[in-house]
Sequence to fold (120 residues):
Amino acid sequence: MPVAMSESRDLAEFVCALARLPDGYMEGLFTGRRWSATVRRSEDSRRIWLFAEDLCGTAIVSFNLYVLAGDRPLLKPCEMSSDKVIEFVLGFQPLGGQSSMAANRICRSRPSETCPTPPS
Fold:
């Protein structure tokens, strides 16, 4: 079921964490396990799609995020809870220092307290 996300610290963290993920395929760690993830963004960045899978198991995470008028995000998880999606995006750490250039633009436009730097 779609979730219209209201402005909150969790939302800001989610949006910034998603912005840090580069377009395309990557591998990384989530809850100590190796995962693959693919991120695709529309040309205008108003639709973001993510599909991820546990490389040693059967778990997946999949969703679309739409940016509506007034820059309001609408999260549409694919047959899973929005909590699972948010937990994954906040916790996934790409290997090899992969990050998105979009993160600089998106997160720079928000106050630093709403867009925390990930732990080293």
Summary: The first helix runs from residue 9 to 20. The chain is about 25% helix and 35% strand. Residues 100-120 have pLDDT under 50 and may be disordered. The two ends are 34 Å apart (CA to CA).
